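stage 2 :: seqdesign
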């Protein structure tokens, strides 16, 4: 069983979010393992409204293209230009290579996000 950072929350679609303000969002190691070599990201631009559970961008690898889903509702505050310019950074360190930040609407992260152990169960079940 893989381990995932305990300080993050996760979606079943393999995105992670921290509880900083604004919240940083990225994709998990499981997503990287599935996609393989990431070569391009299409991210929402600052000022864009995003909704939890809705597609807001794409991650492209040599293998496929996957939709990127926002784990939170709010307004995009910043895009990580280093990742846009060098998407391979995601392959090397998916928890350091955040994709974009969101000023989260409301006071807290959505209650349906998974903690590290629940996310690990989702990943393990998909591999079974």
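stage 2 :: out
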């Amino acid at each position: 069983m893989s381990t995932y950072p305990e300080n993050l929350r996760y979606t079943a679609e393999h995105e992670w979010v921290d509880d900083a303000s604004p919240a940083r969002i990225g994709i998990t190691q499981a997503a990287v393992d599935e996609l393989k070599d990431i070569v391009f990201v299409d991210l929402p631009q600052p000022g864009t409204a995003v909704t939890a559970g809705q597609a807001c961008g794409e991650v492209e690898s040599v293998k496929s293209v996957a939709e990127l889903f926002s784990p939170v509702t709010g307004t995009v505050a910043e895009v990580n230009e280093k990742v846009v310019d060098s998407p391979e950074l995601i392959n090397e360190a998916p928890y350091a290579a955040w994709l974009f930040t969101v000023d989260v609407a409301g006071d807290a992260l959505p209650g349906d996000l998974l903690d590290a152990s629940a996310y690990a169960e989702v990943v393990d079940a998909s591999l079974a």
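stage 3 :: structure notes
- Helices lie at 29-35, 81-85, 88-92, 116-127.
- The chain has a mean pLDDT of 94.
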